[in-house]
Amino acid sequence: MSQYYWPAILLFATIALAALELVIPSGGVLGIMASLTYVASIVAAYTSWGFQFGTIYLVCTMVVAVVCGNAFVRYWPKTAIGRRIFGTPPSEEEVIPERRRELHALVGARGKTISAMLPSGAIRIDGRVLDAVSDGMVIEKDTPIEIVRVKANHLVVKPVDPTNGPQTAEEVETALQQPIDPAIEDPFRD
Question: Which of 9, 57, 84, 120 makes the best surface tag, with the fewest CB within 10 Å?
């Protein structure tokens, strides 16, 4: 056999050892052997084909290795053996705890504080007493509030004026379209 075939033979041996590493639990031994055969393939290319073709071989095999590695990482978990090894990812409903889903369902609900919020306290919504945190301000007892978001496992509330402020999304939209009159006299106006 001619010395010109050795780089290709060693490259195929590298690919075979790398493929075996994926299906045989060898503790990395097959991966190390694949790396060594790849280095031997590069050395054989330089000694058999000369510096110019050896460098071309090195660059081409590195580019192909990066492209194949990227494709492998992207598509292998979707194959039958990849699904058996990695399993199927859990759905969002399996990951998010029931308590957190219940809290997210309360966003937008209105109620009343039953203790002073300094910044945490108790609120009552639909007859339920819940712990909550104010949105960065002190809220007095018996103040109407609205749940604005869930942060970690805490309800974040802000005070609302039930008689003055808009109550529905349509009223909010209408209020946003109204021109704003200055509430305070401009002190720099002559």
Answer: 84
Range of the domain at 69: 3-86
Q: What is the pLDDT of residues 21-36, one digit of tens each?
A: 877 878 889 989 999 9
State pLDDT tens for residues 61-87: 999 889 888 888 888 788 777 788 778
Distance CA 14, CA 36 (A): 8
The answer to whether 48 and 7 have CB atoms below 8 angstroms apart is yes
Side-chain half-sphere of 134: how many Cα atoms within 13 Å?
21
Distance between CA atoms of residues 63 and 49, nearest Å: 19
Residue 181 in domain = no
Residues 110 and 147 in one domain: yes
**In this structure, which amino acid lies at residue 27?**
G
Q: Tokens 């699904």 identify what position?
A: 83
